[in-house]
Specification:
33% of the residues lie in helices and 22% in strands. It is of the alpha/beta class. It folds into two domains: 159 residues, 3-Layer(aba) Sandwich (Leucine Aminopeptidase, subunit E, domain 1); 320 residues, Zn peptidases (Aminopeptidase). An eight-stranded mixed beta sheet has the order 8-9-11-10-14-18-15-16, with helices on both faces. Strands 1, 2, 3, 4, 5, 6 and 7 form a seven-stranded mixed beta sheet that branches. α5 runs parallel beside α8, α8 packs parallel to α13 and α11 packs across α13. It binds ligand BES, manganese (II) ion and zinc ion. Manganese (II) ion (MN) binds next to loops.
């Protein structure tokens, strides 16, 4: 993990391999961003060179230039911030987070960079720190390390104003470090290939993380799942050589007055099962456990930050494979809690494992439930690859998730659970439910299916992260290729807001 420090050294005097500055679009070419903890001389001199180099100052543009005389760092990286904010306003934190991430990503192979981006209040210093750490990520576990390997940026120094409040900033920086480490945990788990991360491997990782951070953990193995009647998780996992697991991992605080349950879809590989996915649709399906990874990361982060709220995570882990023992289209499964489901498409497996875990989570009567799942391709069609859908049974709670995502710098959109679409899943001739309804509105149908397994009266939100969980395109901002860590920042902020008394009926 990239090391992070704060410093009040001036940008010209700081000793680092590179100095990151921000520039904005000006009428006569790029202009140095105002409010930077850097001497004006350095910035005006750099701005002159930047114009010659063709820099414009547009968002995420990167320009490298040799440092002007009098600057200790040999290299200046100018990152575009777009248009300058209106008079009296500051850059919004997400602009700074992305710019810092773009710069950190561009600096891979560099040892130490100092960031002199505009904004000196805690929220903006935090955004720069988060963006730099998130952008410096690389997944190298399965690569031989050669001599010319460009590892991620190793050391980040964020420059702050001379009159900065050290104690206040320290807390913000500690949080940024925990957040970035836990987002990286989710990215690592998602990027790990499915032959190296079976349900048992994932459960072992959770058990280790729990021991390291003082969480309680329980793992139900295949025998325990059978004993307990978890027909959904078993039915999905039955075709695989690597048997399923259900993990409960919990952070508790002695003074907490609220408990949130987080339920994550943990399909370590989704082949589709007997309803096999065609080539072109299965190459990235190691990402189908991204929800469970985000849940684990959030519970660990809550523990590391000592949040005054109880967070219980449920990881529904299975591998969806075709074989002679696999569930067939036409089979009926008895879910945990007793409801029966006719499986018409074994590729709609996420809702089956989630149903069991939701019922089990609900038994503990949490104050609210959030589930996170790479659930449907339909949600990707609806919202694109960078935005997750938020559904639920309670407008206020759904809004709280959407608002937390916005504040955390994640894109989300509220989607309705329309009653007429429920007909499709309720018309089995043999069981209580079908696992597939209408194709049109498929993301909402899946949400309606999950709703059947949530205790009535418990605020519940469903995040369908099928789009943003895995980035098949190039890196952008602080988002790398591959696993992104989608939903971790949103869920951590939700936990913090619950700890601060912001759940409905609190305080
Ligand atoms: N894991 C997939 C959803 C998915 C799609 C995740 C693209 C990430 C990227 C899920 O299990 C699935 O296969 N859903 C089916 C449901 C259908 C059979 C009702 C889908 O969306 O096609
Ligand atoms: Mn599937
Ligand atoms: Zn799936």
């Amino acid at each position: 993990m990239t090391a992070l420090t704060l410093s009040k050294t001036s940008a010209t005097a700081v000793s680092a391999d590179a100095l990151v500055i921000g520039i904005v679009k000006g009428e006569d070419g790029p202009a140095p961003a105002a409010g930077v903890p850097a001497p004006a001389g350095l910035l005006t001199e750099a701005a002159g060179v930047l114009a010659i180099l063709g820099a414009k100052g547009g968002k995420d543009e990167i320009t490298r230039l040799p440092a002007p005389a009098g600057t200790t760092a040999p290299l200046v990286i100018a990152v575009g911030l777009g248009s300058a904010p209106q008079d009296g306003e500051d850059f919004d934190p997400e602009t700074l987070r992305r710019a810092a991430g773009t710069a950190a990503h561009a600096l891979s192979g560099t040892e130490h960079a100092a960031f002199a981006l505009p904004g000196t209040d805690a929220a903006r210093v935090a955004a720069v720190a988060e963006g730099a750490l998130l952008g410096a990520y690389a997944f190298t576990a399965f690569r031989k390390t050669g001599e010319d390997d460009r590892g991620p940026l190793a050391r980040v120094t964020v420059l702050t104003a001379e009159d900065a409040d050290d104690a206040g900033l320290r807390a913000v920086i500690d949080r940024a470090e925990v957040l970035a480490t836990e987002v990286a945990r989710t990215r690592d788990l998602v990027n790990t290939p499915p032959n190296a991360l079976t349900p048992a491997d994932f459960a072992a990782h959770a058990t280790e993380a729990a021991a390291e951070h003082g969480l309680s953990v329980e793992v139900l193995d295949e025998a325990a799942l059978r004993e307990g009647g978890f027909g959904g998780i078993l039915g999905v996992g039955i075709g695989s050589q690597s048997p399923p697991r259900l993990v409960r991992v919990a952070h508790t605080h002695p003074e907490a007055d609220r408990t949130i349950a987080l339920v994550g879809k943990g399909i370590t590989y989704d082949s589709g099962g007997i309803s096999l996915k065609p080539a072109g649709h299965n190459e990235t399906m190691k990402c189908d456990m991204a929800g469970a990874a985000a849940v684990l990361s959030t519970v660990v982060a809550a523990a590391r930050l000592g949040l005054k709220v109880n967070i219980t995570g449920w990881l529904a882990l299975a591998e969806n494979m075709p074989s002679g023992s696999a569930t067939r289209p036409g089979d009926v499964l008895r879910m945990y809690g007793g409801k029966t489901v006719e499986v018409l498409n074994t590729d709609a497996e996420g809702r089956l494992v989630m149903a069991d875990a939701l019922v089990r989570a609900g038994e503990e009567s949490p104050d609210a439930i959030v589930d996170v799942a790479t659930l449907t391709g339909a949600m990707v069609l609806a919202l694109g690859k960078r935005t997750f859908g938020v559904m639920g049974n309670d407008d206020t709670f759904r809004g709280l998730l959407h608002d937390s995502a916005r504040r955390a710098g994640e894109q989300s959109w509220e989607m309705p659970l329309l009653a007429d679409l429920a007909e499709g899943i309720s018309t089995s001739t043999i069981a209580d439910l079908k696992n597939m309804g209408e194709r049109m509105g498929g993301g909402l149908v899946a949400g309606l299916f999950l709703k059947e397994f949530v205790p009535a009266g418990t605020p519940w939100a469903h995040l369908d992260i099928a789009g943003p969980a895995f980035n098949e395109g190039g890196a952008f901002g602080y988002t790398p290729k591959g696993g992104t860590g989608s939903a971790v920042r949103t869920l951590l902020l939700l936990a913090e807001r619950a700890a601060a008394g912001e759940l409905a009926g609190q305080g």
